[in-house]
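seq as requested:
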Amino acid sequence: MSVRVFVPQDSAARSVGADDVAAAIVHEAAVRRLDVEIVRNGSRGLLWLEPLVEVEAGGQRVAYGSVSTEDVASLFDAGFLNGGAHDLAHGQTEAIPYLAKQQRLTFAHLGSSDPLDLSAYQANGGLDGLKAALVRTPADICSMVTNSGLRGRGGAGFPAGIKWQTVLDQPAGHKWIACNADEGDSGTFADRLLMEGDPFALLEGMAIAGLATGAEDGVIYIRSEYPDAIATMREAIQVLGGAGWLGNDIGGSGKAFHIEVRRGAGAYICGEESAMLNSLEGKRGTARAKPPIPAIAGLFGEPTVVNNVLTLATVPAILANGADWYKSFGEGRSTGTQPFQLAGNIKRGGLVEVPFGITLRELIEDYGGGTASGRPLKAVQIGGPLGAYASAGQLDLPMTYEALAEAGLMLGHGGLVVFDDSTDMAEMARFAFDFCAIESCGKCTPCRVGAVRGRETVEKIMRGKDVLVNLALIDDLAEVMRDGSLCAMGGLTPNPVLSAIAKFPEDFWRGSG
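struct tokens:
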């Protein structure tokens, strides 16, 4: 009887040699005349342990990592096919503290099987949410999502159910479900992990959104830098459609929903919903003025739900288990769980899905293990390159929408980028303006010109030139960009700059020349 060995096919694992490790295991098993079945699963999200090899032994999954090709022979010598002891052994996978302490709802299936194995997906509760939606009215589905408190995981945190209800309330006609998978924020990778490791969850959530709003067509907009995610999603659409769960007759219900994948050209601005819609229409990716909002006049001028990958992938669990079940997780109005992504100067980077309310300290120290350099932590940027910085004195802040907003911070897509005390925060402020100058669509003057002038002004400060005057000029620029920009690109760029100046003034005050 063959032993199943799981080696991730996720692009992060492959980037550190997972393909070579899988080939080495096959070769070593052949030399030793052992019967081994290699399963290429999705990553568990414990990125510091990749490639994380798992063996099915004694009814359990036993983990070994990080495994290199040079380790394979010694793993066989140690009897790893039977869960044997080895320096790289971590015991039962689900018992690894980093994973065991999490509460995975959106990522419940991640890493459990071949991402395109539909039978394995269903064996773990997959499609239960879609089946439940098929026997409900559109209004009931919208109400359930609204009552669950699910908010958009793309950054804005807008209640998903209200957006769906708005589209449902539009006059009968053609409508769209648009999934924004243009994951461009620094330190974020949850969308990619899910699309590569559990694609059916996203497709199921989109189909439910279609049933809820009367939309029969969906599109997934994926950034071109994610070729593996694009390929996996396209294949998953074929698998799910071939099984009758997408297409003209979903599950024999007579209801239709079709999905296609579109590849973005790599512009950060296309993560903004209206710029994404323009790109989907074949136009230049520039932000649109609002109103009208996409729910009323979106893709090709038709009512459109625009949701992030994580928002849509969470919906199946809500439909399968109920709104009250989902609301039992989290804190206050921040209900459910949030997939946090630990990146930057951190010892144990990876995905951490936990209920809202966990503190920043618990994420950085308990899960992340502190800085990778071993030096004291200086700052954590929350919410991507346009997010503000939290200082070491704010580590006990609870991670909820409300607490973060009160502290002048934003959750964004859940990305946390850690910096140690060697970081020059004036340089990080310069980077924020430079990033905006490069990625701005150029449509509005506050963003297009303000970012360039901001970068130049910070550079003067870094040279010690008229520091007080130029700090005051930064304040003026920030006000214009925040209040006058057409979209969040320019409107949020002042966040990292002003927070860096306020919390780390010593990095800016270098004397006046």
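The chain has 21 helices and 16 strands.
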